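Reviewer 2 asked us to include a model.

Predict the structure of this chain.
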Amino acid sequence: PPDLAVEILSRSTQHDDRTVKKAGYEQAGVAEYWLIHPERPLAEFYRLTGVSYSLVLPDEEGIFRSQAVPGFWLKPAWFWPDVGDPNPLPALRELGVI
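Predicted model (structure tokens):
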């Protein structure tokens, strides 16, 4: 199975993403399942513990650290800037990509 599955929620699919797909990924043994809402500040990170998913919260610095992708981390706040469209440059700088 894949190590990670990411779903971008929409009104038409969010019910299935939270139920059917989540159960399918869980049953298949996908290590992490992320749900990202594109229009409001909502990101959910699930990690497989045994045979079921547990919700994992970002740490006190607002950082989610993946175990499925070693060394990868992100700040969910990057997805929803206070003003205007998301700008990837600050996130890429923090990640050390640029």
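The CA atoms of residues 66 and 92 lie 17 Å apart. Residues 4-95 form one domain. We have added this to the supplementary material.
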